[in-house]
Amino acid sequence: MNNPYIPNPTVIRRITTENDANDIKTFELVFTDPEALKNFRYRCGQFAEISVFGAGECPIGIASSPTDQGYIQFTVKKVGVVTTALHNSEEGTIIGVRGPFGNGFPLEAMEGRNVVIIGGGFAFTTLRSLTNFILHKTNRDRFKDLTVIYGARNPGELIYKYDLKTWGQRDDIDLNVTIDQAVPGWTGLVGFVPAVVKEVAPSSDNAIAIICGPPIMIKFTMPVVSELGFSPDETFLSLEMRMKCGIGKCGRCNIGNKFVCKDGPVFTFKELQMMPKEH
Amino acid sequence: MVVFQMVWKVIGKNKIPTLIQELNKEYEVFTPVKKENLVFFERVSSGNEAFLDFQNTKKSPKEVFFPQTEILFTYEINKQGVEIEKAPVLKRDIVLLGIRPCDAKGFLLLDKFFSSGEYKDLYYLEKRRNTTIIGLACNRPLSTCFCTSMGGAPFGKEGMDLLLQDINDKYLIETVTERGEKLIKKLPWLKDAENGDIDKVRSLSRNVEKAIKSKVSVEGVSKKLDGMFDNKQWDLIHEKCLGCGVCTYLCPTCCCFDILDEATTKWKRVRIWDSCQFSCFTLQGSGYNPRPSGKERMRQRIMHKFNYFPKNYGENFCVGCGRCVQECPVNFDIREVVEAISTDIWREKDE
User: Which ipTM score applies to this complex?
Assistant: First the structure.
């Protein structure tokens, strides 16, 4: 039996700084063992435990799409010991990866449907994975209209600007990027995510909503989404929780009797309504 | 079906060191030891270290399979990259001698937890699967003991391979499982028990069970807790709690852990006991904490034991050993909480 606590070695191939504050970077990793790459089959919305050797381990959502061949990406904000050590690492550094963990987004249920993706701030990472997955030429036909609403505090804090640019040039995605307050030079949308969702008013007809963002955004976005007619069992949220093991054993990421690491991180709004309000 | 004959043997108390000495040749033997007035389980190298004259050990034996600090693997960072070396889990099979029936029941619950789900916890399971448990029945329960309320008994055999039962200057050894029988066969010098001895322990067992006066009604508590997440009593009961976490450390079933990297001569990834009673347990990188105060943390402990775990595994996550009651510095008593929930006092106060 495989020991789920042992990480697989990867090498940092490329580091991309994502924001002006310089505290969010995307790390592109390649497995040193081709067997490990083959075994790392993931879905959009899953996460992995990242080992920075000499510092420790932390769980990070997978930012690349399964359609990206030969590498995986993680977008990491510098907040604690491990993420700081990761930010101080250079290309070529060996990084451990174990996973993928968690349930991921309900891709099967989304097929043949309109998809509305709503994200705020730095939580956009697995939503970016999902967007790229849907937009990939091998998948685009399987889904109907794609609406993406993404907000950040200011233009400098928008991550994946290169993707936003590419997406903006396509006609098979309705992209709505917003910032909290107007600044000179910004010609896009202005306003908090809930307000923009209301303004864009994506139709809930044959649609599924996928939401991820800070607690305050979730709190004010949910009523808007409900008002637009998205039913609680077709509204999916990806949650954040402190984790250590990633496999349902270390005991800290539970909400009621569910563990965010193994039963989530993606839950329907209906499931969340039945769960204790402790997230 | 495996048929084995239930045998009763007998061993003089003065022969316990000999027994341990002999087992030591083949097994890693863990027994209770007494150090600085604390009784806890440790690997013993000689028969004289074992200390069996206790009411219950201060620390539960969970650390034999789930040590307070355990190396998951070691690694070296060198020019070639990183070399990971898996930590050997088990050197030899284990004999765990002298655990009480409450703690043996605790292991059955931990077994369920660590072997469940897509990913098994091999560190716990490998040690556990290669262990023979020689239990020790309880003659002198403490006032804080409530095993009988939690489905256990002072002479309970659940989870034991062999059970020692204390009658004056000797122990009767009851064979409970095939694994226990195998061990007994390695000890041909053990004498057979006499019928009189067996009658003696049977009546002793009944008397001791009656001596457990502390009763808690747990029937239906799990279900009642379903509607009590927002009960106002949570605001009150946590107030005296210091958040020291001793309840969770001493608990035979609490098994939450943290994982971190440590350097000595080599880098090690270790897991260490953690506690839901600590504020940083759920503190997120952003500074947000879904369990910001003692209220949420106390609620988590009670709900986990009497609602969440029963939902997932069909049993309460408490065996009634009473350690959390005995050792709490502010006399928090989990029995009172369970009783108040079970008798609807909480519900009535909330209305």
Answer: 0.92
